[in-house]
Write a structure and sequence with these properties.
disordered N terminus; 3-stranded antiparallel beta sheet; 26 helices; 6-stranded mixed beta sheet; alpha/beta; about 55% helix
Length: about 700
């Protein structure tokens, strides 16, 4: 019994499963399905929009295999040798992972814009130490990180979750074994472990559903929202081992299980709340397929599972997962073009070759390298040495980023020239090539729309909400007590105008108070989220700030209020069934009326044309010789803006509008480069250099003093 148990766990079956095979081709086939779903989702995200569920398939498989293996050791020896277990994980997983991370660091330095080195460096070291999921969870709640380009190591988040599972699971099982012995029933170890796994599964699943609903962004990466999937695999490993089932039932289980895995690949998408209850489909589907294989021998699916191409993809699935994502991120910069269908197919081919080579010459040999096989200490030393290499590479990236950034600070004045940036679209300037190549396409510190000069000091104590600080006072008055007071308020789409406003403030000696919350409108509307429904806490903070800010401005009676926001992306719903634009127009009028009645003037800045919604954010960087290739139809890039409608509806001369569209578009197209300067900093915001060149146009649009 004990010998059979150990052998079965080692070859991937569940303990004393009837009909266990020396090799579980069904599990290897599941690996092939999982990696295919993930890779297709990353290469063709709109066609295989739910392919990310392949990760959940891997989690259940890992829970099954590791639980079976550990229980085999418990049954054989009465315990678990933690050092040997962790050393095996190191030898199995780290060599290939560290190789890919080292190559990725080199590719980042060689091909990606330097402004991306810092984030990639941070995520590479987080991936090497298997905390990438928590790094991404922290970034996911940072509004300013939402528009950052994906790092080349981002996919390591799921490997981090797995490693954390490997770290905790043996200890959890040892705790269950200890509890069984304390109860005086060591023969009940299986039962106690099953109860423990069931408790973990229930607690984790409930937390996953609750946390996904409350905090969907970090929930996706959190370990505790995924632990139930590992526990589910463990329950299958120990719960079905003594059962038998007829072939017809096993065939039905496999068919249903595969259906539950494949259906979400096409039915789910970025808007699906995940993991939450939605993850039950691929997880239960995987458990069903594994259980069917544990309940007996062959079924009608066996020839398909055993087909050599399927088994080969399962064999290289780990290395394929490691390689495919860095290639996707770096390839556009290597080739100088956006990903097309043929390029995506080429990336897949290269990834498969690299996966085969890594499996052949790194993954398998590393498990028996004499330098560290048979010794826990040498395995840990090898891990530390690998981390040291990655740390050096990361340090070089960070130093390089710091040096380049220090030489790229915002200048005292914007670029000069009658044909520079938006000036190229001023008709009287008669510029010969307004849409030609840019002088530089790298977006560094001098381009950061959120750059705040020393005159703004620290955050004020007003309009604070927990850890959220919103407000600065920037004094350009030179101590003049009678200097005009100006407020700039809104979300990050208002913040992108602070550069030109500060230039005007320096010129005219203004005191400028700025107050922003990302994704939150300054309007008396029933806000429910930015782009997608928000969390209760985010909605409450936005609504409180909105109310308090409106009252603060009314009480302060500034000479001028400048406001802007991404109203087309900020969701509102007052329950009346009225369309969002109508709700916005009414809400903006309710907010503005007390300001103008108190004596303030208002300048509303319309939202610029879309960038990331209509073109790749990297389009300009990938088409340096022909930036006009990034032009998009004006009808697509600049749909109706509620801000424009609200100014028109209010009909008050104290409320003026500045619309930047004519300085980014001609009559038919909107552009990514105008006057030799990239218009956008990222997918969603203007380049600071470009926005500063609009200062004279903004000044000309200011409402006249009463």
């Amino acid at each position: 019994m004990t010998s059979s148990l150990a052998q079965t766990a080692a070859r991937g079956g569940s303990a004393d499963a009837p009909g266990s095979r020396a090799f579980r081709s069904d599990i290897q086939a599941l690996r092939a399905v999982a990696i295919t779903a993930v890779v297709l989702n990353h290469l063709w995200p709109t066609r295989f929009s739910g392919g990310y569920v392949g990760v959940d398939v891997f989690f259940v498989i890992s829970g099954f295999l590791i639980t079976a293996h550990l229980f085999g050791e418990v049954a054989r020896t009465g315990g678990i040798r933690l050092g040997r277990f962790y050393a095996r994980r190191i030898r199995r997983l780290l060599p290939a992972a560290l190789l890919v991370l080292a190559v990725t660091a080199g590719l980042v330095a060689a091909f990606l814009p330097y402004a991306r080195w810092s984030r990639n460096a941070i995520e590479i070291i987080a991936s090497a130490t298997y905390v990438e999921n928590w790094t991404l969870a922290a970034m996911s709640v940072n509004y300013s990180a939402l528009n950052d380009a994906a790092s080349a190591a981002q996919h390591f988040w799921s490997l981090s979750v797995e490693e954390q599972f490997y770290l905790v699971w043996p200890i959890l099982m040892l705790g269950a074994v200890w509890a069984a012995s304390r109860l005086g029933r060591p023969e009940r170890q299986r039962t106690v472990i099953l109860v423990t796994l069931a408790a973990v599964a229930c607690a984790s699943l409930v937390s996953s559903i609750v946390y996904t609903a409350a905090h969907p962004a970090p929930a996706y990466f959190a370990t505790f929202t995924r632990a139930w999937e590992f526990a589910l695999g463990g329950l299958v490993a120990l719960g079905v081992s003594r059962l038998r089932a007829p072939q017809g039932l096993r065939y039905a289980l496999i068919a249903a299980g595969l259906g539950l895995i494949v259906y979400p690949v096409f039915a789910f998408g970025p808007a699906t709340p995940f993991p939450g209850s939605a993850a039950l489909l691929p997880a239960i589907g995987t458990a069903a397929v594994i259980a069917a294989g544990s309940l007996g021998a062959r079924t009608r699916f066996s020839p398909v599972f055993e087909w050599r191409p399927v088994q080969w993809v399962g064999d290289v699935s780990y290395s394929l997962y490691l390689w495919h994502w860095p290639l996707i991120v770096v390839a556009p910069f290597v080739l100088g073009r956006e990903l097309s269908g043929p390029i995506r197919i080429a990336i897949l081919a290269v990834a498969l070759v690299l996966a085969w080579a890594t499996r052949r010459w790194v993954e398998k040999p590393a498990q028996t390298w004499p330098i560290w096989s048979g010794s826990v200490r040498r395995a840990v030393t090898g891990m530390a040495a690998g981390w040291a290499v990655i740390a050096v590479l990361v340090g070089l990236l960070l130093v390089g980023s710091a040096v380049r950034s220090a030489a790229d600070a915002p200048s005292a004045s914007p670029p000069q020239g009658s044909c520079a940036g938006p000036n190229a679209l001023v008709a009287q300037n008669d510029c010969p090539d307004p849409f030609g190549p840019a002088g530089s396409v790298e977006m560094g510190p001098k381009n950061e729309y959120f750059y705040t000069p020393p005159e703004c000091g620290e955050f004020l104590d007003i309009l604070r909400y927990g850890d959220t600080s919103t407000t600065h006072r920037c004094d350009f008055s030179g101590g003049d007590a009678g200097a005009p007071d100006v407020w700039l308020v809104g979300d990050s789409h208002a913040q992108q105008w602070q550069g030109p406003l500060f230039d005007l403030a320096r010129e005219h000696g203004w005191r400028v108070t700025i107050s922003f919350i990302g994704g939150c409108p300054v309007a008396d509307v029933a806000y429910v989220g930015f782009r997608s429904p928000g969390t209760t806490a985010a909605i409450e903070t936005c609504r409180r700030w909105n109310h308090d800010l409106a009252q603060a401005i009314t009480a302060d009676v500034p000479d001028l209020v400048v406001t802007s926001m991404a109203a087309r992306h900020e969701l509102v719903d007052d329950g009346s069934g009225t369309d969002a634009t109508t709700q916005y127009v009414a809400g903006l009028q309710r907010t503005w009326a007390p300001w103008t009645e108190a004596g303030s003037r208002i300048l509303v800045i319309a939202d610029p044309p879309y960038n990331g919604e209509v073109r790749s954010p990297d389009c300009v960087a990938l088409n340096t010789g022909d930036p006009a290739a990034c032009a998009r139809p004006r009808s697509e890039a600049q749909p109706a803006d509620p801000l424009v409608a609200a100014v028109s509806a209010v009909g008050d001369p104290r409320v003026a509008l500045f619309d930047p569209t004519p300085y980014l578009c001609d009559d038919s197209l909107c552009y990514g480069v105008v006057g030799g300067i990239p218009a956008y900093y990222d997918a969603d915001h203007l380049n600071l250099e470009y926005a500063r060149l609009l200062a004279p146009m903004i000044e000309a649009a200011l409402p006249l003093s009463p």
